Amino acid sequence: MVMTAAPHAAQAAHWMKKDLLGLQELSAEEIQLVLQTADSFWEISLRSIKKVPALRGKTVVNLFFEPSTRTRTSFELAAKRLSADIVNIAAQSSSLSKGETVLDTVRNLEALKVDMLVIRHAAAGVPHLIAKRATSSVINAGDGAHEHPTQALLDLFTIQEKRGRIKGLTVAIIGDIAHSRVARSNIWGLTKLGARVIVCGPPTLLPPHIESLGVTATHDVNAAIRDADVLMLLRIQHERQEAMLIPSLREYRLRYGIDRERLTKAKPDVLIMHPGPVNRGVELDSAVADGPYSVILDQVTNGLAVRMAVLYLVSGAPKVDAEDG
After folding, report:
1. Which residues pair with residue 20 across a beta bridge?
2. Which pLDDT band, with edges at 50, 70 and 90, does 317 fall under?
3. Which of 10, 104, 202, 300 is least surrounded by CB atoms within 10 angstroms?
């Protein structure tokens, strides 16, 4: 696999950040640097011995305050394939359940001289708060409805792998835009790399003034599909129905779900993407999720290489004083 889009820009960039907290704060050159680094790690998964010594002697802690399968497992495998030591901590089985604060948990982990903290939390901004006070590098694995930077990076990697470029493509993000950290990170990344982004969903699931982020907003799913090179579907969370933000899952499927018939309105080489887990029969029918246009499993595969790249780059960043963040 060889990336073809703007390799000179990536090679000219240097990673100078202690942490990876979001794509909003990254330049286009820094994003391309991550993608190029991921490209160099991708083939490791094809080897008979799937390990390199790049992070030997480093310790990575997965500190997840929310349930996760894909992201946590991907970071764990990424650390192991770079020969790092990995520790997994779930909030429900830690001292947090006894009343310990998040920052006290981090201070105790840092007393053990860990090198990197991978943080997922239901509250927006928690990884940023930790990063300001930690000397260890912090990687945001998803914070509330704010950002999910490594998911967006693996989405960008997959688009660039399949299409050879991102600049000039039209990407339609369909679903619950208002509450999606995946949508926010992808909007930052895609627009910085020159893509046109359309966001589409019911009025209750599109945030006001979303166009200020440089995207086009529509409630017409057929118009979004017609213009898109990539369709990125977002999971509809059941609590949105309970909060009366959508009339029913059946109504959402009829108006915004992608089935074979609706897909006939798309370009013949459209890519179908989804961050998972997929609500089959809601945002995507199984025939589409498992069909020839789908690159959902490629996203999972590419997520491993991207998270290897992120761990590698962040581990080599110059350390700064905690007061500097």
Report:
1. 139
2. very low
3. 104
